[in-house]
Amino acid sequence: MASNPIVSIFRIKELRSRLFFTFVILAVFRLGCVLTIPGIDASVLINYFQDLASKNRNAFASYMDFFAGGAFSNFSVFMLGVMPYISTQIILQLALIIFPSLKRIAQEDGGQRKVAAWTRIGTVFVCLIQSLAVTVYAYSIPGAVILDNQIAFRLLAMLTVTTGAMITVWLGDQITAHGIGNGISILIFAGIVARLPHAVIELVNKVRNGEINAVFVVVVLLMFIAVIAFVVYEQQGVRKIPVNYAKRVVGRRMYGGQNTYIPFKINPSGVIPVIFASSFLTFPLQIVSSLGNSQNSARWVARLSAILTPTGWWYNILLVLLIIFFAYFYTQVTLNPTEIAKNIRENGGTIPGIRTDKTEEYMQKVLNRLVLPGSLYLAAIAVLPTIIQNLFGFPQSISMLMGGTSLLILVGVDLDTMSQIEALLKMHHSEGLVKRGRLRSRNL
Fold it and tell me: How far apart are CA 375 and CA 88, in angstroms?
């Protein structure tokens, strides 16, 4: 009789240790999200953001808290989260494509270590810029800064916030190396989950006070369940490209002579474009919003801050365009048709009905057909919170957590983590978390 896979997780020492390590790191991360940086009065922050929430004017803070699990409104040491690191990764990956000399360095022996070092150095500079914007935002809150020396506060806050962001990246790396799942994605996942109880309580209170119609809540919940089912269904779907390998003799052994396939997911890039687009917008959004709140800000800065608010249409238009761009960009980086076609030819493989010299062109055509609808589906779900907010009058803190980007990240990270746990269970000859019959990929 097959053992229960949930029980098997805790019976296997390696998997049990990895899970325990992951939970410890997440506990440290959550602790850092509530530790206020020096020189800030936490009670003033609580009253300030509660007042903004009551007036439904905390769009920027809700957006930042969405990825940091409430760390931004706490002005905690982890208030920047992992977004500066992801933004730097994007900039560096674009640089590797634009500048061939950098790409050659990255492809050399030890090149990936150099790229990782460059990413961390770049992250420090991005953090310093964002932390400076944080100090400007802090001074826009009356009574929030209790340190008299302005220069000392700015330097102390910049050092604390930058150090906190780099520690967050290090915590993510530790989860990847010694825990379960992709560490950076797990931290974002934890930040979103940490905000769910607060959003549910806020929603219940607004329904009781008559601020939100209970019928609208039921409609949104049904939409919430439908989107989850659709995302899971879409994430599991694959397009199988058949490949036939001819028999060949190497030494005294014969290789090949088999038929296989290359599985391309319907949405090849997963939730990465959403995370990339959101983090890429975080950097300019934070700077513009922080400067826009300053009493001495120029009129055009304040106007730009109002236009780029996360609840506005201009922001969502930029988000959609960036999601489509990063869907193509990430797919080309991870599933390079040239490299795939080259590997097929070198191993004596052919795609039925496709000439050998047309393999790359065919691969590119298939990927384009998959990426475009996949990116449009991601973009449609990502703007769902704005639609919910405008149609039903939901506060942004609730609509962001009940739809759109949050669902994509939660479901995507959960499926990826489950697949890693299942792989570890199979290594130890245990039944996976989900039966194959239920996760069978559909052929297109």
Answer: 22
| Residue 212 identity (one-letter amino acid) | I
How far is 227 from 429, CA to CA, in rounded Å?
34
Could you give the C-alpha distances from 436 to 53, 416, 440, in angstroms and in order? 46, 15, 6
CA distance 163 to 157: 10
The residues, ordered by sequence, that sit 6+ positions from 206 with a Cβ below 8 Å of its Cβ are 212, 395, 398
Exposed, middle or buried: residue 230 (CB in 10 Å: 0-12, 13-18, 19+)? Answer: middle
Answer positive or negative: Cα dihedral of 376, 382, 387, 392. positive
Contacts of 259 (CB under 8 A, 6+ apart): 242, 243, 244, 245
For every residue of 297-334, DSSP letters joined together read: --HHHHHHHHHT-TTSHHHHHHHHHHHHHHHHHHHHHH
Note the pLDDT tens digit of each residue in 288-344. 666 655 555 556 555 666 666 666 677 778 888 888 888 888 787 777 777 788 887
Task: State pTM to two decimals.
Answer: 0.75
> Hunting for tokens 């930029």 — which residue is that?
318
What percentage of the chain's residues is helix, strand, coil (to nearest 5)?
A: 70, 5, 25
How many residues appear in the chain?
444
